[in-house]
Description:
Blueprint: H1 6-31, E1 35-37, E2 42-45, E3 51-55, E4 57-59, E5 63-68, E6 74-79, E7 84-88, E8 100-108, E9 114-123, E10 129-130, E11 138-141, E12 146-150, E13 166-172, E14 179-184, E15 187-192, E16 212-219, E17 225-233, E18 243-245, E19 248-250, H2 267-273, E20 278-279, E21 302-303, E22 309-310, E23 313-316, H3 324-329, E24 333-336, E25 371-373, H4 376-380, E26 382-384, H5 386-389, H6 393-397, E27 401-406, E28 412-416, E29 420-421, E30 428-429, E31 442-451, E32 454-461, E33 471-478, E34 483-484, E35 488-490
Parallel strand pairs: 2-9, 10-12, 11-17, 23-24
Antiparallel strand pairs: 1-4, 3-7, 5-8, 6-7, 8-9, 12-15, 13-16, 14-15, 16-17, 18-19, 20-34, 21-22, 25-35, 26-27, 27-28, 29-30, 31-32, 32-33
Amino acid sequence: MKKVNFRYMKNxxxxxxxxxxxxxAVACEKTEVKQxxxxxxxxxxxxPGQTGTASFLTHNITSxxxxxxxxxxxxxDIDLYEGTITVxxxxxxxxxxxxxxKVSLIGYTPTGATQSVSVYVAILQNPDVxxxxxxxxxxxxTKPDTRYLFDPFRRGTSGEPLQTESVELLWQSSNNLVKxxxxxxxxxxFYIEKAESEDKDDKEKPDxxxxxxxxxxxxxxxxxxxxxxxxxxxxxxxxxxxxEIAGRTxxxxxxxxxxxxxxxxxxxxxxxxxxxxxxxxxxDPLVGAASYDFSGNTxxxxxxxxxxxxxxxxxxxxxxTGTVEYAVAHPDAMITGAENNGFDxxxxxxxxxxxxxxxxxxxxxxxxxxxxxxAGDIFAALTISPEDDGMDWMQAKKMYxxxxxxxxxxxxxxxxxxxxxxYFDGRLDNVNSNPDRPLPWTGYYWSCNVSGDDARCMFxxxxxVTRTYNxxxxxxxxxxxxxxxxxCVKQ
Length: 491
């Protein structure tokens, strides 16, 4: 009879126990995959005593417990089957009732694991800004602690229908710039809050927004982006400080900018005056440089709705990517120029109707409602002001732009030299063409005019050798895949 090696058998049994334990742990982990999220993150009401609901998504959550809620508020119902939470605001504020706060919830899995969620609830102190009757590709937000409404089923300016199934905050220039994006009862809304005080010890917030830009995308049932909207958050109304040039009302700042630096040698003002960049004929804003002097050729920061850093995409134009349809579906991508088509971002043929010189504004115009891309005749009325033209180049260099004079009135207006994104590879480019002293800066501003393969822009630069050759061209030909800043003109 063969002798049994008990030590060997013990080791085998030990290994079996370990394997079983690991398998059990893995199985347990699999069953503990859970999800509990409120996509909008809020329930915003317009009057005391109102009842509102928010939808939530769960997976492997079998019960939800209310942990806390603001004084005076009531959690009426949590429906796991429908995925809704219903709350009611206080009807009066006689004691300690709160106008805003958070409802804290805990979701439980079958094994008792938990996941916490909070829902911001508030009675809005300011009336909604309602853009539903004025569809556009750009919505301006200037009022803090305010909800903005728009129609997610209508595109551009024509209002042609969209088969929208969901909306998504695609990117924003800073975290929490756009909050509480909601898509409910056929209406899309977002919330802009007050800016945080720069003094951390000062709990009072200034009565202003945090300036920046964002893009909200609409998706269809298949999850494809079918349209998108630029949200331009700025501390003052761009229409209020518009100016008259060549008899036309023109915004006195670039599309997407918070200020006009007006020639001040202030690095922050210069950077905040550049605004967004646009390829000719596209409605979608592209971010510019992270620094006022384009150092490091680094893109400005972008964040998704979860607060994670994301990056501008660069796509080579070909038969599948160099189309209007692709551009609409990829608003966060720069499409570099197709050599076979004169370095247009469109791969075959040009489409002059995207930003038409005359007639109705197209669905692809990036300006807000009531405004459109400027025509070149406005720039033809301008020239570099004599004072700037005779300035010492070291002083002029610090301005990053020129005061341009309207030759018909003698009035001057400052245009920032924000360079461009190059048609070839999308790189940021803000250096003049002087081979001996290639110092910044250059300015490009698209017009709605075209010239053969190219489109036309206003162009200027700083000549660092002599003031005699400072460049200004109102009708400069430029490949359409370049991305430049814009000034919008009133329709």
